[in-house]
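Continued from yesterday's entry.
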Amino acid sequence: MKKFIKATILDVIVAFLIIILIIFSIYMLLGQTIEESITLINQVAIKVENSSKQEEMKISEDNRLENYPEYGTQYAKIQIPAIDVDLPVYYGDTLEILKNGVGHSSGSYFPGEGGSIIYMGHNSKKVFRRFSELKIGDSIKVTTSYGEFNYKIYDMQLIKETETDKLPIQEEKEILMVYTCYPFNNIGYATQRYVVYAELVE
């Protein structure tokens, strides 16, 4: 009886491991395609909903937005030519928002306001997986309905998620900070962040 129970337990463990291996293989082969399809559907829906809101945004004489976007809506596009990034930017930083593109931390400034701007995105292939290829001097362009803003990278740092002082909010200089999870090929929760720092040049 003991031998039968041991054999049964061993069979269950082997079957479980095989199932895990199959699921992992399917994720590696089809996960990105499924994610891209869902993202595309969400982006189309959000873009249609927000097309009228973008036109209402404009900068006042004291460099402040007169009309801020609603939380969760797209208000800009970010382009990083060096790594072929061309993505929508949404106001907010929830996991649901980050499924659609790049998120904008609600505690930071907006492009053109003269302070710290914090963007974030997943380390997936279609978002920020190629961050390691960026170099000092590479350009980042943010296009909004109220203007186009060009930034130049001057620093890159690997930080812990708890090091919030490495993402300072200040109003003395317009700095764009863009980060993603590290390692870039990580699956699951990551405790490190790779941050790119860029200053406004135009």
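--- second protein ---
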Amino acid sequence: MTLPQSFYDRDVVEVARDLLGAVVQRGGVALKITEVEAYRWPGDTACHARAGRTARNAALWGPCGHAYVYLCYGLHHLFNIVTGGDADAAAVLVRACEPIRGMATVSRRRGGKTGPVTLTGPGKVAAALGLDLTWSDHPLYQPRGLSIERGEVPAGVLVGPRVGIDYAEPAHRCLPWRFAVADTAWVSQRRSLRRVAAPC
């Protein structure tokens, strides 16, 4: 079942954790979300909204349940999921996934790679799904094109600080807003993560 728009109409940290185990689909490719990061504005200088609303980050400002895709360092497209109200400027970055269906397509899009290295990194996820900037602002709650479906709730969850945000204020760099499925190899940079109890 495709997750409804109301699923995303909550605080970004709550949505981020609840997205673990959900399945993102495009065409014949289906990937289980295994690692995410939450970004929220105001009060988070790691968030793209810190620069105000721009043409690049317009999708970040809502509506919720839409994709926010941007180009990082001119090289990699990154796939985010917008949450909260239209003025919240909050999104969940999908950092890693595990393939469920379409591995041949994923491997081809990732230069012939196989195994966890194929999908453990946000640029790798977007490449595996074949995403570019044209997918930004796409509604993920409609069962066509690019969508997200309910999945199995993970038995264990890892929590830790976000990755690659040295530009943010020190207090924001330490926020435990990265979440990952505990019992899978399809997770990046595990050393800074710790296990916590899964939600009931």
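Helices lie at 5-8, 12-18, 103-109, 122-129, 170-173. The beta strands are 23-26, 29-39, 67-72, 76-83, 90-101, 146-149, 156-160, 178-181, 194-197. Will compare against the first tomorrow.
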